[in-house]
Amino acid sequence: MGQTLLVVVAILVFSLFALNQHRARAGAEISAMGREIELAATELANARLLAATSLAFDEGVIGLTGFTVDPAVLTPPGSFGAGNDPDEDENTPADDVDDFHGVTTTVTVQRNDQTGRDIRFTVTYSVRYVLPDAPATPSPGNNPTLAKEVTVNVVEEVDSDLGRTPVTCTLSQVVTPAWNALHG
Amino acid sequence: MAAILDHLTAILVGASLLGVLLFVQHRSGQAAVEATVHQAAQTQAFSIMESIERDADNMRLIEGARPQVAQSEGRTTRLTFHTLDDPSDGENASVVAVTYRLESTYRTMTVDGQERTIYRIARYVNDGVDDDGDGSLYDYTGGSTEGVLSFDARLISRDGTTAISNGDAPDDFSRVSVNLAVAIEGPARVAGDQAATATTNVSQQGRTFRPLTLTTVSDAGPDPIPDPSAPLPPLPSPPPTP
């Protein structure tokens, strides 16, 4: 009886040990996967931010020679978003940075390791006016200024509980008519 | 003998537990190796990517010589553009032609249970002088380790509607997108559950670079601009068959 009890206790202790080992190993794998997904999310956010900020600063400056210094010609915040500019509809390709405001898309990043384990992300954009001399501060009343902050938020889509929080990446960039003319 | 028979159950259970314990410990050690290997793969990918980033950030557009990319079998085989030799020289920095070439290593590596051909990315610089005397104006200046699985470079237009993967940069060229996957030899598979973890020996990275200035430079200056189409040194030869 004593011997059987000892055996049961030994098996129990060993099972706990084995489970802990597996948990630690799974944690390391999940961490490695998470790092790869973080890299993919960062690149996606960066690529989308560069694409958005490569366009014109505002619909009102398209076709201008040089760049504007008059906020009165700029798009009011209420008209931000796809297809809200004059002579545009929701199928018109974006041609200035605020056309991305409020846009949400789903992007699949393909993995080249032939495992078929592609990664899906939800990408959302937001654009707002900020103070040119204090770019971290939103423009009071979101009135048009000569600086816009473009923010791209990327969130991993997960189908099940992976034991970790979905990867998120948010990148912002402030653009001005001058910056856009030089680097856009 | 009687003592052995008396404790037969305990001996069998103890021996079994000991065997499984050794296996668990072995896998534990191997998991640590896999984590290190993944870290190494990421570091290798970062390393070559930083080199490309430095060159792409300082890209120069020369009249009549746009950035070029060549592709074969779905892989970028060559990425060529003009850049600054040493950006820290400021306005006196000379312009060179740089080429990143995907070269076969004539080796394979096991990634997720599949044998994959591995390559390396070599960086060549043409500063107009054959520094190493090999007959080519392009001189070898380093590159990645042997473990590149894929290399994909694209030259993207400003509005994003054109992404050239084989040919000259588009008219309104704005950005360079580079994707690569780098693998490092991982530990041999000894357990069934390793199938799920074998991809930890590969790291895939992508970056998009917008050159800091894309002002087109005239080739009419006092110093001739190196020819980006100059021949590269010959590709490495396959190892002799035994």
Short description:
The complex is a heterodimer of chains A (184) and B (242). In chain A, strands 1, 2, 3, 4 and 5 form a five-stranded antiparallel beta sheet that branches. Helices cover 32% and strands 22% of the residues of chain A.
Taking the alpha carbons of the first and last residues of chain B, their distance comes to 58 Å
What do the pLDDT scores of chain B average to? 85
- Output the structural class of chain B: alpha+beta
Succession of helices and strands of chain A: HEEEEEH
The helix content of chain B, as a percent range, equals: 10-25%
Main attributes?
heterodimer, A: alpha+beta, five-stranded antiparallel β-sheet, 5 strands, elongated, B: 242 residues, alpha+beta, eight-stranded mixed β-sheet, four-stranded antiparallel β-sheet, 2 helices, 12 strands
Structural overview:
The complex is a heterodimer of chains A (184) and B (242). Chain A is built from two helices and five strands, in the order αβββββα. By secondary structure, chain A is α+β, with helices and mostly antiparallel strands. In chain A, strands 1, 2, 3, 4 and 5 form a five-stranded antiparallel sheet that branches. Chain A is elongated and about 95 Å long. Chain A starts with a helix and ends with a helix. Chain B is of the alpha+beta class and 242 residues long. Chain B has one domain. The N and C termini of chain B lie far apart (58 Å). At the A-B interface, helix 1 of A face helix 2, strand 7, strand 10 and strand 11 of B.
What order do the helices and strands come in, and which of them pair?
The complex is a heterodimer of chains A (184) and B (242).
Chain A (H helix, E strand, L loop, with lengths): L1 H52 L50 E6 L9 E13 L2 E5 L9 E9 L11 E8 L1 H7 L1
Antiparallel strand pairs in A: 1-2, 2-3, 2-4, 4-5
Chain B lengths: L1 H5 L1 H50 L1 E4 L5 E5 L2 E10 L10 E17 L2 E13 L11 E6 L4 E10 L5 E2 L2 E2 L4 E11 L18 E8 L6 E2 L25
Parallel strand pairs in B: 1-12
Antiparallel strand pairs in B: 1-3, 2-3, 2-9, 3-4, 4-5, 5-6, 7-8, 7-10, 10-11
